[in-house]
Amino acid sequence: MATTNLPGGEDDKISTLASFKIPAFRIIWAGTFLYYLAIFSGIVARGALAKELGGDNSALGLVTLAFGAVSLFMTPIGGVLADRIKKRTILVFSTLLLSVTSLGLALTELWNVTEFWMLVVVSAMQAVAFSTLVPARMAFTVDIVGPKLIPNAIALAQLSMNSNRVIGPALAGVFLGVAWLGFTAVYFFSAALSLLSVLCFTILGPGEPNANRPRRAPLAEMRDGVAYARSVPSVRLVILLAIGVTMVGFPYIAFLPSVSEDFYDRGPEGFALLSLIGACGALVAGVLVARTTLAAGPRVQVLSGVILGLGLAFMGWAPTFALALVASVVVGGSTAAFQSMNATLALSLSESEFHGRVQSLLGLGFSAFGLISYPLGILADAIGLRTTLVGMGATTLVLVLGAEVVWSRDRTPLTAVG
After folding, report:
1. How far apart, in whole angstroms, are the C-alpha atoms of residue 193 and residue 150?
2. Residues 71 and 370: beta-carbon distance below 8 Å
3. Predicted pLDDT at 415
4. Which domain holds residue 310?
5. Which end of the chain, N or C, is less surrounded by CB atoms within 10 Å?
6. 346: which DSSP letter?
7. Within 10 Å of residue 182's Cβ, how many Cβ atoms?
């Protein structure tokens, strides 16, 4: 693997909770924790509801397709906004949109008028929120903690997400298991949590954009961000691998309801358990990655990508639900480590004035995985979901090992940018 060329002191060991010593980081972490709890409880409900209303794998993929298509358009815009206007403003309005959309589904369920197309619309609207929220939050986090703590802060932010991959599905499973609560309670719960997140973000500082950045038109700034990422080899390599693996490997999560029901006849409760166990793996990986230095980042990125590919193939093969749970742990942990290292490397190795736009380029991978989920759903209906999962794992392995071969052959250094 190519090595990093870092400023002095970057490779010193960092305590797991180092960033929590900064008050503003604690606030943004709390707000992030709340909206991730809202999101992951809602995702379990939305997946189960989409399966109930749509009936097949292509329906599950279509809900994710709506998210991906809108994200593909909005993510570059979100990156420009994060570098251009006050980040607190973006966080507040984006999280408020998450709350409103969850409330809308809660009311349609309460009145028993929910239709499949409503899930597609909500998925698209939440894509708008995410596409602006994530680049602003990541860039704001880097501003708060400074360059040395970037790996630690990003890993702790991932920890807030991964802990809620445990808590959210568990709570959703409880709600869905009680007849008089069900989907309605999950969505009211999600709406309330997102609103609490809004309140957290309102007490942050404004998060002003870089005062020294050139004043350019929004489209010109978007082009500048792409040009910058292409011009810095280390950033370009990280982004390309991140997009490829995220697009091909991460769509497995859209098919977990079918893994539960079609493979093992476990229904929504099995889906919630698969999500919960996978999140436990992600949580453990997040704690380990929080102590990782930037120098070790490339090795962690490649190793986690390899494990993800193997885990997906194992999930496609697993003949019993118990083995599927093992696969879910492996896949959950590897996706968490891979995602954390993507953001750590890309933001650590890029100029601060481009952080929002660089993060938005990483986000294109999630947009692409949303787009590809629908054709993968059609493929799964045609050739079988097991074969599709094995193929996703094999393709992930090819991408990661291919990138490693290219990097080793070219001996391209990952050089930290000042």
Report:
1. 27
2. yes
3. 46
4. 14-209+217-415
5. C
6. H
7. 17
The DSSP code sequence of 197-256 is HHHHHHTS---PPPTTS----HHHHHHHHHHHHHHSHHHHHHHHHHHHHHHHHGGGGGGH
pLDDT for residue 8:
37
| 9 found inside a domain | no
What residue type is 298 in one-letter code? Answer: P
Q: Which residue has the tokens 């996978």?
A: 278
Residue 6 lies in a domain: no
According to the model, what pLDDT value does residue 222 have?
A: 85
Record the tokens describing residue 415, joined without a space.
């050089």
Q: What CA–CA distance (Å, rounded) separates 177 from 181? A: 8
Cα four-point dihedral sign 78, 375, 346, 145 = positive
Mean pLDDT by groups of 10 residues along the chain of 418 residues: 38 72 95 91 80 72 79 87 92 96 94 91 91 91 85 82 74 76 89 96 91 74 86 82 85 82 81 80 78 71 90 92 92 86 80 83 74 79 89 92 71 47
Q: What is the pLDDT of residue 6?
A: 36
How many domains does one find in the chain?
A: 1
User: What pLDDT is attached to residue 370?
Assistant: 65
The two tokens of residue 396 are: 């992930």
Measure the CA–CA gap between 382 and 46, rounded to whole angstroms. 24
Q: How far apart are CA 385 and CA 216, in angstroms?
A: 47
Sorted by sequence, the CB contacts under 8 Å of residue 31 that are 6+ apart come out as 91, 95, 197, 198, 200, 201, 204
Token pair, residue 103, equals 């409330």
Query: Cβ-count burial of 173 within 10 angstroms (0-12 exposed, 13-18 middle, 19+ buried)?
Result: buried
Output 174-182 pairs: Cβ under 8 A, ≥24 positions apart.
175/41, 175/45, 176/44, 176/45, 176/48, 176/268, 176/269, 176/272, 177/269, 182/109
**DSSP 8-state assignment for residue 417:** P
